[in-house]
Predict the structure.
Amino acid sequence: MDPDSIDAGRGLERELTLMARHTALVSQWRMPDRALDRSAYLLLSRLEIGEPMTLRELSEAFGLDVSTVNRQTAALVRQGLAERIVDAEGGTARRLRPTERGLAALRSDRDQNVEGVTSLVADWDDQDRRDLVTLLRKLNEKIEERQGLNWPRD
C-alpha cells in the first residue's frame, strides 16, 4: 500500500477516534438533561424514518444480537417511548413503533445535538460545512456498504 495512503488512514483513524471520544464527553457534560440514552436515541431514530419493525428487523438493521435489541426495546416500552403493535400484515411477531412521547424526546435531543454541532462550525464558511457533510456521508455510506447495513436517508 502507498505510504501516503497509510499516513492518511492513520490520520483519519485518529480523528475519528477523537471525534467519538469528544461526542461521548459532550453528551455527558453539555447535555445532562437529555431525555434519551444512546441506544434509545439510535433505535428511535431508526424507527422514526420507516415502518414499525420487528426485533429481528431491528437486530439486522443494527448488526446486533436479538437479545441485545430485545433488552433495549423493552426499556423503550417501559419508559413509554415506544409501543409494541400487532403486525398489520398478519405476522405473528410484534412490531415496535415510537410513541408521541418517544418522538418528542427524540426531537428534543436532536435539537440539542444540532445546536451543539452547529455552534462548533459556526465560524466555518458555508462550503466547508457542506464539504464536511458530504464527506461524512460518503464515509458512512462506504461503511454501510461494507457491512451490508444501509441506514435509510431522506
Summary: The two ends are 36 Å apart (CA to CA). The longest strand covers residues 82-85. The chain has a mean pLDDT of 89.
